[in-house]
Design goal:
Layout lengths: L2 H15 L6 H15 L10 E6 L9 E8 L2 E8 L10 H9 L5 E5 L3 E5 L14 E4 L5 H8 L8 H26 L3 H11 L6 H51 L8 H14 L8 E5 L4 E5 L6 E6 L6 E6 L5 E6 L9 H15 L1
Parallel strand pairs: 3-4
Antiparallel strand pairs: 1-2, 2-3, 4-5, 5-6, 7-8, 8-9, 9-10, 10-11
């Protein structure tokens, strides 16, 4: 199981275990320690994961943080754990104090579901108030997995993470601001757009009207962007499917031993050729017989299939016709002569290739 799958499995497992997890200690054992194991650390080796790490604060001695990730005998990540039902917001001050007294470059505050990573971007050796990276283990995104992987034991590089932390922090904050503005546009946000398109004075009434306009416009834009991405993904799937069909056809052609072209297949071929003669010369309509089907092609090109005759089944015969995206649809034939009933579709398929070449 790869790193991504392990994280996804932990997220799915966490959702099921939550009702049974009643204490902070249980949260550590069921959710946090498995996460550290996925990061490649031996949670039972104090040279890698040291529990109850002592972080003396001024005159207060014996202050302890739940875990410290150790590298080269020094702490590199301090981890403060809370019960999975606890809101993490009031607890970063505790981690803040521990961070200040150690040489660790990263702090992790977590309740086993939400994981918040901190560092000292603003002032050296002083933990920032806001995390530079946060994720929910039960709702992982692809971008989250990329960032989490940087903390894996085999990849861990302080400088690499710190260098990317600044961009990540501000990028996440900007996305958060945009999310809030899209849901409930602020007056400043609305005023920015209204000033670009409205020439009159921005009165309270105008701002009120534009608030709804901006909100609808943003929602429509997001909807259009999603639709475009879906269409692009579907088009890519169709292209992959066509390539697979062509590969199968080529493979069947290469292994053509034992293929027998029947009289019925030749009869069907002649009917198709007669139908298409009104558009092209008959010598441009050729065929290739395979084990699975009898293919009729334009110019002998396997990338220009006109139709397929599926006559090998004992009881039923089918005519396979291709649309503009080369997707095949099979039609049952009560008799070979019934191919004439599909003359329009066959001519339409031929026309797509003629248009391409024009």
């Amino acid at each position: 199981m790869d790193f991504k799958d392990e994280l996804k499995q932990l997220g799915a497992r966490a959702s099921k275990l939550l009702p049974q997890i009643q204490t902070e200690e249980a949260t550590k054992n069921a959710l946090i320690m498995p996460f550290l194991q996925i990061l490649g650390y031996d949670v039972f080796n104090p040279f890698e994961i040291l529990p109850e790490y002592v972080a003396d604060i001024g005159i207060k001695k014996g202050e302890k943080v739940d875990y410290a990730v150790i590298k080269d005998s020094l702490p590199v990540i301090l981890i403060e754990c809370k019960h999975h039902l606890e809101n993490l917001d009031p607890h970063n001050s505790q981690l803040f104090r521990y961070f200040h007294t150690s040489k660790a470059r990263f702090g992790l505050l977590t309740n086993g579901i939400v994981f918040r990573f901190y560092t000292d971007l603003i002032e050296k050796n002083k933990m920032d108030e806001k995390p530079f990276f946060e994720f929910n283990i039960t709702d992982l995104k692809e971008a989250d997995i990329v960032e989490i992987k940087k903390f894996h034991k085999s990849n861990f590089d302080v400088e690499v993470i710190v260098n990317s932390a600044s961009e990540l922090k501000y990028s996440n904050e900007i996305k958060g601001i945009l999310t809030n503005e899209f849901k409930a546009p602020s007056e400043d946000f609305v005023r920015f757009f209204s000033s670009k398109v409205y020439e009159g004075k921005s009165t309270a009434k105008v701002i009120s009207q534009f608030t709804e306009i901006v909100k609808r416009s943003v929602n429509q834009l997001i909807s259009d962007m999603i639709s475009e991405r879906l269409k692009s993904a579907l088009a890519k799937e169709v292209e992959i499917e066509k390539e697979e069909i062509e590969k199968i056809a080529e493979k069947e052609d290469a292994n053509s031993d034992g293929i027998v072209t029947t009289e019925e297949e030749l009869e069907g071929y002649h009917i198709v050729r007669a139908i298409l003669r009104s558009k092209v010369k008959s010598d441009r309509i050729g065929y290739k017989d395979t084990i699975s089907y009898f293919g009729i092609l334009l110019d002998g090109n396997s990338r220009k299939p006109l139709c397929r005759l599926h006559f090998n089944a004992a009881k039923k015969k089918y005519l396979g016709i291709f649309d503009s995206s080369k997707a095949e649809t099979r039609h049952e034939l009560p008799s070979i002569d019934a191919i004439h009933d599909y003359a329009e579709q066959l001519l339409a398929t031929l026309n797509t290739y003629l248009v391409e070449n024009s």
